[in-house]
TrEMBL record:
This is Sulfurtransferase. SUPFAM superfamilies: Rhodanese/Cell cycle control phosphatase. InterPro entries: Rhodanese-like_dom_sf. It comes from Bacillus carboniphilus.
Length: 119
């Protein structure tokens, strides 16, 4: 019984870690810094949000579809556009596990768009 409780708590902690703990070394960068021709912009927001405020030159693959369509991304440096920290954390972790080099991110619902901040 004690081992089962430890296992359940461990699984819960891992789930919380994957969702809410920021990824080290990936910075919040303004869009003007992502205009590098070697950088591929991936918008992981829902289609409703990305339609209302599109990001020029971005490929829109919502986080819910990322597992299905990640292989269509070009093997380049990637810049992630997300609306929430949860979307950002989940998508960056997923892309890094697949071998992509995530250079930075931008949160559209955040006030830090013009500041460099490590998260």
């Amino acid at each position: 019984m004690k081992i089962l409780l430890i296992l359940v708590v461990t699984i819960m902690l891992l789930s919380l870690y994957k969702r809410y703990v920021p990824i080290l070394g990936v910075k919040c960068l303004p869009m003007k810094d992502s205009n590098d021709p070697g950088c591929y912009i991936v918008d992981v927001r829902d289609y409703n949000q990305s339609y209302k405020s599109p990001v020029k030159g971005a490929t829109n693959i919502p986080i819910a579809y990322l597992k299905r369509y990640w292989h269509e991304l070009k093997q380049k440096d990637i810049y992630v556009v997300a609306s929430t920290p949860l979307e950002k954390n989940m998508s960056i972790r997923f892309l890094k596990r697949r071998g992509f080099n995530v250079q930075g991110f931008m949160l559209t619902d955040c006030n830090c768009r013009d500041k460099h901040q490590t998260a």
